[in-house]
């Protein structure tokens, strides 16, 4: 079984409406098909990477390759967990969480997208809350960072809804035009999930893949004075 070699295949994050997990081949095929369909108004480009400007078949292939690349390049020092978001048995999008030198910095970054027909129903908040629960309660993170271009009000709204604070801006070039990416930061002490309950299962056997142990997570709940 693949989970004997990659235990994160047993990881599940569940919320009242969603389950987040590493995709099976069928899940990944469903996500690739979803990526070929509409994700946003084609007159706008809300993503800094512009990946949705590619033709549908290319978007599908790049979605599969992006997932495979994240697994192939994974090290405890630099990792990205690419999860599918599932509602009522249907893959509706993807939610990623990553960390660089996480064992030292204890900081994560996130990214996500939803198929267009699943937007506007609160799923974006719920799936981000799920991985923030993983970060703060499962992995002992100290902070989470994210960002979105100012032409992506939905993503900006999710960050504000979940309590992130503005953390500066970055200039981007999108479709040959200047754009501004708003950065956000959320400290562990400020995390209060608006979604309850959120449950984690199957995490502990895979903690070493994140460069940490269970004792590290427990210690993060009781930091030394001044930390």
Automatic annotation (TrEMBL):
<dbReference type="InterPro" id="IPR051908">
    <property type="entry name" value="Ribosomal_N-acetyltransferase"/>
</dbReference>
<dbReference type="Pfam" id="PF13302">
    <property type="entry name" value="Acetyltransf_3"/>
</dbReference>
<dbReference type="InterPro" id="IPR000182">
    <property type="entry name" value="GNAT_dom"/>
</dbReference>
<feature type="domain" description="N-acetyltransferase">
    <location>
        <begin position="18"/>
        <end position="187"/>
    </location>
</feature>
<dbReference type="InterPro" id="IPR016181">
    <property type="entry name" value="Acyl_CoA_acyltransferase"/>
</dbReference>
<protein>
    <submittedName>
        <fullName>GNAT family protein</fullName>
    </submittedName>
</protein>
């Amino acid at each position: 079984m693949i989970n004997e070699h990659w235990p994160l295949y047993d990881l599940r994050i569940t919320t009242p409406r969603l389950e987040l997990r590493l995709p099976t081949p069928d899940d990944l095929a469903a996500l690739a098909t979803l990526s070929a369909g509409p994700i946003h108004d084609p007159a706008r480009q809300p993503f800094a990477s512009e990946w949705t400007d590619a033709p549908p078949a290319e978007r599908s292939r790049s979605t599969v390759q992006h997932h495979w690349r994240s697994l192939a390049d994974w090290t405890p020092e630099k990792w990205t967990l690419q999860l599918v978001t599932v509602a009522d048995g249907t893959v509706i999008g993807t939610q990623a969480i990553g960390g660089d030198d996480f064992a030292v910095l204890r900081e994560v970054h996130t990214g996500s997208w939803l198929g267009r027909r699943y937007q506007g129903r609160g799923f974006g908040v719920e799936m981000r809350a799920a991985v923030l629960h993983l970060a703060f309660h499962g992995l002992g993170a100290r902070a989470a960072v994210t960002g979105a271009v100012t032409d992506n009000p939905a993503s900006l709204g999710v960050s504000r809804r979940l309590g992130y604070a503005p953390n500066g801006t970055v200039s981007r070039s999108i479709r040959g035009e200047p754009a501004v990416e708003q950065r956000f930061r959320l400290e562990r002490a400020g995390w209060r999930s608006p979604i309850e309950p959120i449950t984690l299962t199957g995490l502990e056997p895979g903690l070493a893949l994140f460069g940490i142990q269970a004792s590290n997570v427990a210690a993060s709940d009781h930091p030394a004075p001044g930390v």
